């Protein structure tokens, strides 16, 4: 009878220690899962008293997690040490009293295994998983218990805390200094995970990634190339420029002297509206209505050009190459599109940059970036550093500029790229199809 009473008291103590360990594990998970930004907003903007208290606890997350984690571990070990001998004795006495030694050994192993499954599952894993779904509500529920809870945990683990801080200081770090915050890579990983789980759309993922890449991207990646610039000579009349505006649909027309490498200003379409109906319109000098323009090198970061646009209140810049010639032009719209994607206005062509066809092939604009093609087909095109566009890659692989009417093809990375449209020695459209052959790079007839 005495043994039965000891078994019951041991089982009760075991259950009690597991329940307390569950509580500590849940408390640590609740603090770790709470959104610091949300709590800060509630505490500062809405003056939520509970949020203020939770935010104060969240800022000391390292200490709290250490206390709770060490308390949980201590309780689980204590539960195991207190109960294991008694439970093994109970099994061997009640069910294996006449069994062989090997059977008693198996029984002992079974008791220990079952006990640790209960300890790890219910004392650690289950509360962490459960509370992660209700972190905020559980955090509010525990607010009144945190002062007492913190005191208990400090008593339980203060030697471990002191020892840990000593080792951290010996390693050359300040134990009172908070760990480094969330990095760019952490955010990208969270966005990718959210996209895989379906909580973040692909368009949202691309926009967030574009925001991070905006700081590193140079203007030569977003500019309109010199061969595509719609410009006017300075000796042309205002009526000529107005005709160009009407024909091309651009709101800003660059003005050059001798050639496109000598852009001296820009004319705004809105400035020409006041001359509509003026009989002497064609005789007015173009230079008098020209605005200054920004000049930046190709290596300029998009972020820096965006800052210049805001400070100068201008929306167009001439991109200059290393020889002082015009590499292209970039506008505020180009910078914005590098983040949000293409913006189609009433004058833009409706032809998509990337168009998926019914047969599984893909039609690309010749100016599409190589990175987009590689991401779409999950391949490495092995382009050199000076090649940014798919059209440029095809020309490099061909070793020549295709002539009008030609439709040459190259295969690289297991994808067949066929030129389908050429205008003024520039590749306009390229058709891409996967091929079953091994990865090659060759020109086909």
From TrEMBL:
Record Pfam families: CBS, CNNM, CorC_HlyC
Any one cellular-component term (Gene Ontology): plasma membrane
Specify the CBS domain's residue ranges. Answer: 223-286, 289-346
Does the UniProt entry include the keyword Transmembrane? yes
GO molecular function terms listed in the Swiss-Prot or TrEMBL record? flavin adenine dinucleotide binding
**Where in the cell does this protein reside?**
Cell membrane
Q: Which UniProt keywords apply?
A: CBS domain, Cell membrane, Membrane, Repeat, Transmembrane, Transmembrane helix
Which residue numbers delimit the CNNM transmembrane domain?
A: 3-204
Q: Which family does it belong to?
A: Belongs to the UPF0053 family.
Q: What is this protein called?
A: HlyC/CorC family transporter
């Amino acid at each position: 009878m005495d043994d039965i009473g000891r078994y019951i008291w041991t089982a009760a103590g075991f259950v009690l220690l597991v329940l307390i360990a569950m509580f500590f594990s849940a408390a640590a998970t609740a603090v770790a899962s709470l959104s610091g930004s949300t709590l800060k907003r509630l505490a500062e903007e809405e003056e939520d008293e509970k949020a203020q208290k939770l935010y104060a606890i969240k800022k000391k997350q390292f200490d709290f997690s250490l206390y709770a984690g060490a308390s949980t571990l201590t309780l689980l070990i204590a539960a195991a040490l207190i109960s294991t001998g008694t439970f093994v004795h109970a099994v061997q006495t009640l069910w294996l009293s006449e069994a062989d030694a090997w059977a008693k050994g198996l029984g002992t192993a079974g008791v220990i295994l079952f006990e640790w499954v209960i300890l790890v599952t219910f004392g650690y894993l289950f509360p962490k998983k459960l509370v992660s779904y209700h972190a905020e509500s559980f955090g509010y529920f525990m607010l009144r218990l945190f002062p007492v809870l913190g005191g208990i945990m400090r008593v339980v683990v203060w030697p471990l805390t002191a020892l840990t801080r000593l080792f951290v200081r010996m390693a050359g770090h300040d134990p009172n200094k908070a760990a480094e915050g969330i990095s760019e890579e952490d955010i990208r990983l969270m966005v990718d995970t959210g996209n895989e789980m379906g909580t973040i759309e692909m368009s949202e993922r691309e926009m967030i990634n574009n925001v991070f890449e905006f700081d590193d991207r140079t203007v030569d990646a977003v500019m309109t190339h010199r061969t595509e610039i719609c410009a006017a000579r300075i000796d042309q009349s205002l009526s000529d420029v107005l005709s160009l505006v009407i024909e091309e649909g651009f709101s800003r027309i660059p003005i050059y002297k001798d050639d496109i490498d000598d852009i001296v200003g820009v004319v705004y379409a809105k400035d020409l509206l006041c001359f509509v109906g003026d009989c002497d319109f064609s005789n007015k000098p173009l230079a008098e209505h020209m605005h200054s323009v920004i000049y930046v090198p190709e290596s300029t970061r998009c972020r820096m050009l965006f800052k210049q646009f805001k400070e100068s209140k201008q929306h167009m810049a001439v991109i200059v190459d290393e020889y002082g010639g015009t590499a292209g032009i970039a506008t505020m719209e180009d910078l914005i599109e590098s983040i949000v994607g293409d913006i189609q206005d009433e004058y833009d062509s409706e032809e998509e940059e990337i168009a998926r066809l019914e047969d599984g092939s893909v039609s690309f604009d010749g100016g599409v970036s190589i990175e987009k093609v590689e991401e779409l087909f999950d391949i490495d095109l092995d382009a050199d550093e000076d090649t940014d566009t798919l059209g440029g890659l095809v020309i490099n692989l061909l070793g020549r500029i295709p002539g009008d009417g030609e439709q040459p093809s190259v295969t690289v990375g297991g994808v067949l790229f066929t030129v389908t449209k050429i205008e003024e020695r520039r590749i306009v459209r390229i058709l891409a199809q996967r091929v079953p052959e091994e990865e090659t790079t060759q020109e086909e007839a």
